[in-house]
Every structure is written in structure tokens, then in C-alpha cells.
Amino acid sequence: MHEDLPHHEVDGDVDIVSYEAGAEDREFDAALRPKTLGELVGQERVREQLSLVLEAALARGGTPDHVLLSGPPGLGKTTLAMIIANQLAAPLRVTSGPAIQHAGDLAAILSGINEGDVLFIDEIHRMSRPAEELLYMAMEDFRVDVVVGKGPGATAIPLEIPPFTVVGATTRAGLLPGPLRDRFGFTAQLDYYESAELHRIVSRSAGLLDLSVTEEGGREIASRSRGTPRIANRLLRRVRDYAQVRGDGTIDDAAARAALELYEVDQLGLDRLDRAVLQALCGNFGGGPVGVSTLAVAVAEERETVEELAEPFLVRLGFLARTPRGRIATPAAWEHLGLKPPAAHAPEGQLPLDGDDMEA
Predict the structure, then answer these.
(1) Each residue's pLDDT tens digit in the chain (360 positions)?
(2) Which run of H or E residues covers position 182?
(3) Using CA atoms, how far apart are residues 250 and 252, in angstroms rounded to an integer?
(4) Given CB 3.0 to 4.6 Å as the disulfide criterion, which of 82, 239, 253, 328 pairs with 259?
């Protein structure tokens, strides 16, 4: 959701973006990204807070505080980073935590920073510890010590960095070390979107893409989008394909329902993986409790896939609970599958866990 998405340069192993999408999906996403906070739908509190931070910095003629954006995938963290750079009229340099595994990687990026630049670090919690420690100094003092050589002959050369703004994005804020979190002057927690907000996003996207979407068709897509704009736009793309190939091009209620049924997205937004997890939990394990690793084996997926993609949404819907003994299906899950829970099944001890559960 950027204006003229800039060109794409490479500085070492790091992408310095000015975005120019080549693939269809990138062009689709680029066309839909809002360019200003005023165009952004939802997240009202974050928009207002961030607007004050940026306007105050521009009025002072300086750089704004470093910004940390946290929240589940698909809620607009990258979009907000682009908006920040756009509203500051500053270049946006993009990298990610996994790409910065050595302090030297970060030093190479910082050595090319110009005054007022915005450095966006996606999945910042996945940076290596040496790189994190180097970033502390860069964010606070705008300088880093570059070590040249090894052993007793190693020399630290101070490198001054012009004032710049770090925008960090993370899906797991709890994994960020305290010293790094403390160096962000503004922290925003992005929340899931309401269905009405997603309907506005679908309508806006359809208008930008010159698609014919009825009120009912837009609402149907929004209601199955799991509270996530990225999923709403992805479903819109799939329904568009269906309407063009098997209909007259109009995305109405019937086309949306038929398309989403074909792509195995049900009325609540559950997809194939979500239903497989619930069916394994209820059908194979009597509703649980069962460990997540065992559950992952039952649906032929990696544990991380079940934990990060399916489980959060199922917990949010109240279909699955995490207990000290493992995952259990709630009565709502049995009802959604059209099954009757065992008489002995009772959803007791639904306590959230941060660590691994026991394999039951």
C-alpha cells in the first residue's frame, strides 16, 4: 500500500527498498497498500498515537523516536512502516531479523544510513544477540564500534551514524530482550480487525482494482477473513478469479460463497488445516487432552505450523483450549463439526501455557 513503490537495490545481503513489484501478487498488494495514516482502515488508537509522534517530529525538524510494531501476521506492520517513511518523506530501508546473524551484517547496513532514513527490521526478535547489542548503541547514541581484526590485535573503530529511525516489527514481542524494547520510544500493539472494518477494506480494494463487488459479497468475504486484512485481500483475489471464470465478473453473495467453499474456507474462516486439527482432536483423541506434537503428527504437519497458524485462531474462536495436560476441544468445537461430545468430556482447567505441554 505504497505510493510509487521505489526501486529495489541491494546493499550487501540487505534489501534497500524503494519497492517495484514484478510479480502479480506484489503488484496486487502494492496497489492496495494505503499511503498515509488517513487512508488506513482500522487501528484508530494506533493511528492517532502514531500521527502525533510523526507530526511532532516534523514540526521540530528532527527524526521521530524509534517505533516498535507488534501483533499477529497480516495486520499491517509492514504497511505502517511504509506509511511512516512516506509521511516523513524519507527513504525506507528494509531488512529482517533472520538476515542479520552477525554484528558485521548490521554494521554494513548502518554504514549506509543517511540522515532521516527509516530502517525497517521485520521479525526483529530473530536477530542474533551480537547484532542486538550493536543495535542498542546505534539506536541510543547513533554510533557503533566496528571491530577490525581478531584476537589481541583487534581494534574497535568508532563509526558515527546520522540520526535515523528504526521501525521494528515482531509477531512475538515477548521474545524481545528488555534492553532492546526499552530503546523504542513508541510501541504499538496491532489488534485483529472487526468484520465491519474488513468490509471497508474489501470495498476499498475492490474500488482500487476496478472490481464489481456487491454489499453482500463484500460482507461474505470480510466475515471469513479471520480478522486479518491480508487474508481479506487474498480471499478477494480468489473470489475475483472465480467470478471471472465461472460467473459474469460480479462478486456477489452467491459467487463469494461458491468460491470460498471451493477453496475450503468455511463461514467462520476456518480452512483445511483448522478443520483437520479439530477433527483429529475430536475424532482421534476424543477431544483431548493431547500434546501439540502428537496433534501435529496426526494432521501430517510440523508442530510449528499447528502452533503458529491454526492454534491461535482456534483459541480465539473458543474451539480449542490449552491446558496443563495438553490441548482440548471445547463444546463449541464439537458443535461446529456437527459432533456430540463424549459425556465424560468437560473443558476443565483451561489455563494458558507459554511452554510445551505434556503429551497425553
Answers:
(1) 433 434 334 343 444 443 343 455 566 666 788 888 888 888 899 999 999 999 999 998 888 999 999 998 889 899 999 999 999 999 999 998 898 888 878 888 888 888 989 999 999 998 888 888 888 888 888 887 766 656 666 666 777 888 999 999 998 888 888 888 888 999 999 999 999 999 999 999 998 888 889 999 999 999 999 999 999 999 999 999 999 998 888 899 999 999 999 999 988 889 999 999 999 998 888 887 888 888 889 888 898 888 888 888 889 888 998 888 888 988 988 888 888 877 655 444 444 444 444 443
(2) helix 178-182
(3) 6
(4) 239
What are the angstrom distances between the C-alpha of 250 and each of 230, 233, 242, 335?
21, 16, 10, 34
Kindly state the DSSP code that residue 351 receives in the 8-state scheme: -
Q: What cell numbers appear for 240 in the block?
A: 475475483
Residues assigned a catalytic role: 77-78, 122, 171, 230
Residues 6+ apart with CB under 8 A from 110: 138, 144, 159, 161
